[in-house]
Amino acid sequence: MFLALLLQRAGIDCVVLESRSREYVESRVRAGVLEQGTVDLMADLGVNERLRRECMIDEALDIRFSGKLIHLDLPGLTGGKLVHIYGQQEVVKDLIAANLARGVPILFEAEATRLEGLTGEKPVIHFKHGGADKTLACDIVAGCDGFHGICRAAIPADRLAIYDREFPFGWLGIMSESPPLAEMTYCNHDRGFALASRRSPHVTRLYVQCDPSDDIANWPDARIWDELHIRLNDEARTELKEGRIFQKGITPCRSFVSAPMRHGRMLLAGDACHIVPPTGAKGLNLAVADVRVLARALIEFFKIGSAARLDRYSETCLKRIWKVVRYSTYMTTLLHRPPDQTPFDREIQLAELDYVLNSQAASTMIAENYVGLPFEED
């Protein structure tokens, strides 16, 4: 949706094929931490009116461990940058409305089934829509179809390098009708990781580390609240407010990168070519960074006939992707307790946290990555 708006503004025709219904994608709850660069792009595209009105602004990030508190002043550590809290489904609503208002065709419930001619000049997308088999001939295919989509799978296996790491824990996440804590709060506790995130003044997103193969039925509401109070060091139950839980689920933690991000006339972006653990709040923001690079390359290609930026699209994006994977992996290993953690490993982890607590350089590294790295120039 971001890419379509960027291309439409430049006068380049495009069609968006969305496999799900509009109702589904606008109601699917996902992350909500927007980097400064993502917010700036929404403003540049003129789709930030509701964001400005309804978002929450985070100027700090807290990390709790062993009865201690790391308080990161984001603007103070990053030269004034901060993050905005605005649900991903709200971003999607705004982008869909803007695309439709500006005449960008969006075909909902259009399931892409096959790609052909990717190494030629007119690739073709085969898809199902309205109960019929259809085709779409294009100049370029933008593979923004997620981890389970068909685009990455269309690249011959011998031309694709896969980097994959599955962590031995998952996140049990809930949405609660309750006010959030004053700051986004990460916790490293003897019993495992916890996160008190923020969605709105009246809705809280909360997580606890768990076995990724656990059954959600083993986690009744009372057990979840008990575990959150313990891991947040709120045994007195005075800080974390409980409310009605209206969503819960268990999500595995993994890192995944595939390269290259281009095959002929098809270019991948977002989850189609990279997944990061949620600890760094980078999934949506990294996808937006991809399409900023991709849009610039496509505009140059269609306006002046130069493929130079398209040729280095994958290399340019992967520089940022691996930096974000590094940061997300660092935060994940810093804050979680893996089941095979040794006493030595635990002491190293606590020493690292104590170092961050007392080091402005270490605090700045976390803050700079959290608010978002600078846009990759090429």
Low-confidence stretches: none
Indicate the radius of gyration in whole angstroms: 21 Å
The strands making up the biggest β-sheet line up spatially as 5-4-13-14-15-12-16-19
Number of helix segments?
A: 12
Q: Tell me about the largest β-sheet.
A: 8 strands, mixed
- Name the assembly state: single chain
Provide the residue-averaged pLDDT: 95
Helix fraction by DSSP (H/I, runs of at least 4)? 25-40%
User: Shape from CA axes?
Assistant: globular
**Structural class by sheet pairing and helices:** alpha+beta
> What amount of the residues lies in strands?
25-35%
Give the termini distance in whole angstroms.
23 Å
How many E strands?
19
Explain how this protein is built:
The chain is an alpha+beta fold and 378 residues long. Helix content is 36%, strand content 29%. The strands form 5 sheets. It has an 8-stranded mixed sheet. A 3-stranded antiparallel sheet has the order 2-6-3. Strands 8-9-10 form a 3-stranded antiparallel sheet, with no helix packed on it. Helix 11 (343-358) crosses helix 12. The relative contact order is 0.16. The mean pLDDT is 95.
